[in-house]
Design goal:
Largest sheet: 8 strands, parallel, barrel
Helix content: 40-55%
Strand content: 5-15%
Radius of gyration: 19 Å
Shape: globular
Number of strands: 10
Mean pLDDT: 95
Low-confidence stretches: none
Order of helices and strands: EEEHHEHEHEHHEHEHHEHHEHHHHH
Number of helices: 16
Structural class: alpha/beta
């Protein structure tokens, strides 16, 4: 699956045996109204041509437009076999997860997805709902058995302790995730830190580390503490498999590729200097609004995406 001509380095994806580009193309930006379809498809084609093989997406991105555009892009240049395709589903029940997965397969015009992740694990009840009887995990395990998906992971942007609880609940159910996705950026190191609390545990378990919100949709740059290249390379310096970048132009794609091509592991002095520049700005989470507000909580705004609560718990509330 790796590309012969690559402008970016490749890394191991946890213990899956897969090699993926150190930079991934984020799916949300591809479907924005400010990015027309022609540009979105061009970004995907250009990224693949330059060696990026990791493509991120989600069932809920831009009402399905992101998945549709990605599917069209892969069909147009016949590049499905060249990429590691990932998407996410919001359903917490077997029924909703199955329905959303089938829609994702149809939109992206493929008969299998390399990695499907339980999306927005931001509440402590999410792991329990997913692993409950008739929960979403049953749907993904069935899909994997049927050859519709290859690997299973989860994402979240709120609190590292929720990630740790998801790993705990999975272990209680005899399951090890292939990947976990979380915010990893120069502010995170100082505030409610995924890099300090979650990443070491993922490395210990052999779970692939997927970084997101490395620029926090521009918030990190607005802090005027670090450059975009410094921010991306900070995430690359962590034991990440992929740093997923939101890309809405060829210029931003070039920036991400430049960060990967020129990256060299930080010395202790370089790392300390960089983090010293962001410490004061990071302390109250101002530049990580996904941790400190509900602005990014799409499942909170659309609770119907989650599906019904577990039936055995509903029964307990009946008189």
């Amino acid at each position: 699956m790796s590309n012969q001509r690559s402008d970016v380095p490749y890394r191991e994806l946890g213990t899956t045996g897969e090699k993926v580009s150190a930079i991934g193309v984020g799916g949300w930006h591809i479907g924005l109204k400010s990015v027309d379809e022609k540009l979105g498809i061009r970004i995907i084609h250009t990224a693949i041509d330059r060696g990026i093989n990791f493509l991120d997406n989600s069932w809920d991105y831009n009402e399905g437009i992101s998945e549709i555009r990605m599917g069209r892009a892969l069909r147009e240049n016949k590049s499905r076999s060249k990429v590691f395709l990932m998407t996410k589903i919001d359903g917490r029940t077997r029924k909703e997860a199955s329905k959303q997965l089938e829609q994702s397969l149809e939109r992206m015009q493929t008969d299998y997805i390399d990695l499907v992740q339980h999306h927005e694990i931001i509440r402590f009840e999410d792991p329990n709902r997913i692993f409950a009887r008739e929960g979403a995990q049953e749907a993904l395990l069935e899909a994997k058995k049927a050859g519709k998906i290859r690997f299973i992971g989860f994402t979240g942007h709120k609190d590292p302790h929720v990630h740790l609880y998801m790993l705990e609940v999975a272990k209680e159910n005899g399951f090890k995730f292939d990947t976990a996705q979380m915010p990893l950026n120069v502010m995170d190191a100082h505030f409610r830190s995924f890099s300090k609390l979650v990443v070491p545990e993922l490395v210990k378990q052999g779970v692939g580390v997927l970084a997101m919100k490395t620029l926090a949709n521009g918030s990190i740059v607005k802090s005027k503490t670090v450059t975009p290249i410094e921010a991306i390379q900070y995430a690359l310096n962590l034991p990440t498999s992929v740093v997923i970048c939101g890309i809405d132009s060829i210029k931003i794609l070039d920036q991400a590729i430049k960060a990967a091509k020129t990256f060299k592991p930080f010395s202790a002095a370089q790392l300390n200097k960089l983090l010293a520049k962001t410490e004061k700005a990071a302390m109250k989470g101002k530049f990580e609004p996904f941790k400190t507000s509900s602005i990014y909580d799409s499942t909170a705004s659309n609770p119907e995406w989650l599906g019904e609560e577990p039936k055995e718990l509903q029964a307990l509330t009946e008189p």
